[in-house]
Amino acid sequence: MENFKEEAVLVENAVNALLTTAMEFAKLMKVNPYVPLIAASDFLNCFGDTLCGWYHLWMALEASQGLAKADNDREKMFYTG
Predict the structure, then answer these.
(1) What pTM value is reported for the model?
(2) What is the pLDDT of residue 1?
């Protein structure tokens, strides 16, 4: 897990930015509902990128754990691929 510490920080920062933006959108909806609607597409793109980053991090962690447990070359090739 230590191998992916920097990547985990990036994903955590992205998640925190999404949460902050969502809370700001909720505040803006009470004042001017058009601003969050105008930015909704960009917000969803950022959400998708963050989710992909989280999935990649998850897959990398699973692969590194599987590689550590691999006992033959075929499994090692699978996890390094």
Answers:
(1) 0.80
(2) 59
